[in-house]
Amino acid sequence: MPLVGLKELVQKAYKCDYAVPAFNIHTYEDAVAIVKGAEEMKSPVILMASPSAIKHLGIKVAACIMNDLAQRSSVPVVSHLDHATDLDIILKAMKAGFTSVMYDGSNLSFEENVQNTKFVVKVARAFGVSVEAEIGRVGKSEEGEQLEQILTEPESAKAFFEQTQVDALAVAVGTAHAMQKQEAQINFQRVEQIQKIVDVPLVLHGSSGVPDEDLTRISKMGFGKINIGTVLKTVYVQKIREILLNKPELKDQITLLKDASVAVTQMVKHKIELLNSAGRA
Ligand code: G3H
Ligand code: ZN
Predict the structure, then answer these.
(1) What is the DSSP letter of 152?
(2) Is 97 domain-assigned?
(3) Nearest of 137, 184, 186, 177 to residue 157 by alpha carbon
(4) CA 242 to CA 224: how far, in whole Å?
(5) Quick check: 273 pLDDT over 80?
(6) Which residues keep their CB under 5 angstroms from ion ligand 2?
(7) How confident is the model at residue 139 (pLDDT cuts 50, 70, 90)?
């Protein structure tokens, strides 16, 4: 199955009441484990490189890992740049072969956010790349720094979409990044208000903190893309710790990381099930 753009995947999900899972990758091993989970569930999948992943891997290596895995995969895979605030990085990512980018102007004024997003959309169209942007602000940054949440105003979301024509729109409806427990309280009334007046696939950030039943509910409410990162890091590190404790004789990091990545694949399959994305490849 080929490497694909975000637009076609999320549009289909949006119309058919399921959501495409978008998982943050940080290393080669967790990227492999994520694609394996998606293949076993016959689900499309979005691989995302966050600012910390880009800092660790570099743009070219991140693109190579994701695009090579996509080309060898039996399910559609998107290579997505997550939470980019720097226009230069976005341009480099497009040149490196990412099929989708998120421009994150959530820290800017509405006008600046619109202006920069429009520029990204214009360049992205020339590259054949999809664009996600954010209106409102999801609490806590990817790096864990405290950011105040600003719930998305439905009218602002409508105006933002009309002016930018992004392919997917991230909104703040009660989640926060990097939650260790599933304690997010989604404002479903706000979701309904947005969904009623904005005709574009929505994106949920900070989804590690969302209770299972709410994840299923929201995947049928106009959200075509659900971003999940923290929980995969947590289960991966937990498994590594467990293996090291139980096998003190282990000397080989390839075996360690491969064996531990089983926990990532399992969690990926569980989330795919919740999003009703199994069998949609
Ligand atoms: O953009 C990535 C996500 O919003 C992931 O959030 O790490 O809290 O699951 P999370
Ligand atoms: Zn996010």
Answers:
(1) P
(2) yes
(3) 137
(4) 35
(5) yes
(6) 205
(7) confident
SS3 107: coil
Looking at the chain, the whole-number percentage of residues with pLDDT higher than 70 is: 98
Residue 281 maps to a domain: no
* Atom from ligand 1 closest to the CA of residue 138: 4
Does 271 reside within a domain? yes
The whole-angstrom separation of Cα 6 and Cα 4 is: 7
Question: If you count them, how many residues does the chain have?
Answer: 281
Q: What are phi and psi for residue 138, nearest 5 degrees?
A: -75, 135
- Residue 1's pLDDT is 65
Q: Using the mean position of ligand 2's atoms as its centre, give its distance from the Cα of residue 6 in Å.
A: 16
Q: Name the 3-class secondary structure at 25.
A: strand
**Digit-coded pLDDT (tens) for 190-224:** 999 999 999 999 999 999 999 999 999 999 999 99
Average pLDDT score over residue span 262-278:
98
Number of domains in the chain: 1
**Domain CATH for 111:** 3.20.20.70
**In which element (H, E) is residue 202 found?**
strand 202-204
Ligand 1 pocket, mutate which of 6, 20, 24 (most atoms under 8 A from CB): 24
Instruction: Considering the candidates 30, 68, 82, 86, report the single residue annotated as catalytic.
Output: 82
More confident residue, 145 or 70: 70
Beta-bridged to residue 81, according to DSSP, are 49, 101
Q: What is the mean pLDDT of the chain?
A: 96
Give the Å distances, CA to CA, from 110 to 9, 87, 136, 215: 28, 17, 9, 28
* Structural domain for 196, as ranges: 6-234+264-275
* Ligand 1, CB within 6 Å, residue ranges: 24, 82-83, 177-179, 205-209, 227-230
pTM over 0.90: yes
Domain-embedded: residue 242:
no
